[in-house]
Amino acid sequence: MDxxxxxxxxxxxRTFPKCGIAVSSRQKSLDxxxxxxxxxxxxxxxxSDTASExxxxxKRSCSFLLFLSTLYLLLPIIGRAYLAYTVSPAxxxxxxxxxxxxxxxxxxxxxxxxxxxxxxxxxxxVIDENGKTIFLPAESLFNSIAPYVVVNPExxxxxxxxxxxxxxxxxxxxxxxxxxYYGMMIFKSQPIPSxxxxxxxxxxxxGVPIYYSVANLIIKDASFESLYVVDDSINIVFKNAGNIHxxxxxxxxxxxxxxxIVEKDSIPEFVVLPEKIRKVKLPIKIKLRNGDYLIRVRLDxxxxxxxxxxxxxxx
Length: 315
What we know:
The protein is α+β, with helices and mostly antiparallel strands. It is built from two helices and 17 strands. The chain has helices at residues 2-39, 49-80; strands at residues 85-88, 92-96, 101-110, 115-127, 133-137, 149-152, 155-158, 163-171, 180-192, 204-214, 222-230, 233-240, 246-256, 261-272, 277-283, 292-300, 307-314. Strands 2, 4, 5, 7, 9 and 10 form a six-stranded mixed β-sheet that branches. The radius of gyration is 31 Å and the shape is elongated.
């Protein structure tokens, strides 16, 4: 971000002198037009419309330059206002074998030069078929983790360059048979400046996804809903037919009918929630000649066996 701001500053500093000269010469020209128009008033004693419009345009140009100058001065201030902190681990994914409770420890590090006030909240979430995460209020889902966790401390301050530790305890409810609980642990920050600074203060959030699955209730299952080529792209529709989330990755190949590899590409890792689908689109990078081809996709979703799908298509 700092580098971008510096580049912008250099660009503005080069642009401003040229604008100043242009406006200055324009203003002198308009002043001359104004004085001449005073001697050429029409019979109704009104100034010519051309001169009036020119003066109005000059005022607008000066106002715009004043706005740009103010923005130029504020950019470094806004840049310095950004305060950073980190949270680790970045996510929790654990399978529980008969344990009634489990405790995690998170490290929160303030890497800024100001103190921070941190508040912890929980939210539920879903992931749609295109991979977008949609946040929901806590306890919106039947398997929300929020009612069964205790956090200590829930709110605290961190000194500049300091580290604090947060403990989270999850207790499995005995009266429910839910295969997996999940939710998002949100760390919300608000800067506390060590001294008065005329800056815009920015609050930040860090989300940590947490998944706890119950070992004796787990079912892992998956399938291809669809596999096809259209508009020079491989389109995959993957379905999580099980009852826990899946973390999926793999590879896709394009082959000739006699099994010669034409193109091979990796499929970046993605998450699919229980009983949901995920659409994946991979562009074909090379120009295919007309003819018959095969697409073959192999996916690893954490089961003992890989999921493989194949389809023939004509270019």
